[in-house]
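Bench log, entry 3. Co-assembly request; chain sequences pasted below exactly as received.
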Amino acid sequence: MRQSQLFTKTKKEVPKNEVSKNAQLLIRAGFVHKEMAGVYAFLPLGLRVLERIKGIVREEMNALGCQELIMTSLQRKDLWEKTDRWDDAKVDVWFKSTLKNGTEVGLGWSHEEQITEMMKNYLSSYRDLPANVYQFQTKLRNEIRAKSGIMRCREFMMKDLYSYSRTDEDHQKFYDAVIAAYHHIFERVGLGERTFLTFASGGAFTQFSHEFQTVTDAGEDIVYLDRAKKTAINQEVLTDAVVAQLGMDRAALEEVKTAEVGNIFSFGGTKSEQLGLTFKDSDGNTKPVILGSYGIGITRLMGVVVECFSDEAGLVWPESIAPFRVHLLSLGADEKASEIYDMLVAAGIEVLYDDRDVRAGEKFADSDLLGIPYRVVVGSRSLESGSVEVKRRTDTDAISVPFGALVEFFQK
RNA sequence: CGGGCUGUAGUAUAUCGGCAGUACGCGUGCAUGGGGUGCAUGUAGGCCGGGUUCGAUUCCCGGCAGCCCGACCA
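Structure output for the full assembly:
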């Protein structure tokens, strides 16, 4: 894409009243627009990052044999009454509205009830199981206090997966496979080393749920980390008994601040019974479907990446989720730069080409702010030497690559 | 939901109970052209409502909005 055609602009000033690092940088770089507290629009560059994260998650979900669908934001009241979660006293994040005919509807803050109710239409025999479905959906939650930029919003993108299994054993097997897939996802977005499987409250259904917690000061959770085991215990369930049960040594646990990027739950058959989701097993008996739920906050994940990798000059995107792979800068060498741009694009490399008529300093500063992994500079020096300067966003020095070797450089 | 702070051009900020200033941005011109360049010039502002006052952007009250701390957070 030619940068002269990108409608967004960068800003030098940090937005007033915006303390969170991720929001400051994403707004300055033109990745997001803040509509109101906890509500952000994703602009072209931000959307590209979001889509790349979704792409990785989608690949991993599909590899588990999950099927993608999308539910609705408007939800029926009667569904939520079945599990006693319509009452504002029970769930305090509801946005609710009323149809013209007086019918009350809820705006989806979660889709467990709705999706499970729908699945009743399709799951009636053990032959229909297992079934695993997921979606990327905008969740609407009336948070009392939105904060931390895009990390805790009233409107945000979540991937939620629901598993329907025949037996506890089948369920457990899939649950473990999801854990492995989640590790893989966080690895791929660059957060693998600092993301830990964490034992957390299981609510009414099981003793523990599992969270994926990423170490960052921008987080809201406190977990106790066993680095050797790559697992942690959320402060909310930390007791001597729990530490002993999990075979950890309390003295070895390290207290760290983290952000929750994923959360997975086993519901057993309880929720299915509440909702009437049963199946006929091969022995002729009617049994509740065993249910699991698995979430990843896509927009929050993007915020956490920003928090973890950015520096004083701006954003730093891991290659796997960067909006573009290459940022091509023309310094008064538009003809040659355009030629290189066409060549790279033809080779299938995603390039943002800064073809604007602005000062070199501004181009460099913007390039650092946008955080695209590779910067390629074409200028008078290039024209003399027949090569371009290539620099990684995370490096301080550039290397020289001949014009003819450039495509190959980015293809490996 | 408890507590605290704040609302001045598109953005970031200053001043003041009596003509609202600066920087960035945006427009124009000239110069410049490898780390947000220089000079000149133009553009644009007091969140909303009420009160006090000769006069309110400033003081008071209410509303709305934003930020922070805590609580909350399948």
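The mean pLDDT of chain A is 94. The first helix of chain A runs from residue 21 to 28.
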